[in-house]
Amino acid sequence: MKVSKRLLKNIGHEASYVQKNSTDFLNVTNESYDLIYMDHAESGDSDACALLHRNDVAIILSRKLLKPNGLILIDDIQTPFNKGMYSVPLLKECGFNQLSKSSYQALLRKG
To answer: pTM value?
Structure first.
């Protein structure tokens, strides 16, 4: 946050900052977003991170936190326990198309 604040100050811009875990933030925000970037937690050697991502995607979808034509970008999808192993299939089941192919990240948009 310190780096971001300094960079924004140097270019004459401001931003709001929230320091919460992803699930808590998604449960309380009243905004909708053009882009949701998901890179929280570490993949490690279990599917715990992938479960977190899947649960957070369920919140995003149920609370309609993504604007029309909004994007979801999920990082670290080419690892043994990749972060998108459950969330990407869920998004596809809900009508999202994966715009990126053979990438370390999955970029998805509805329709």
So the answer is: 0.85
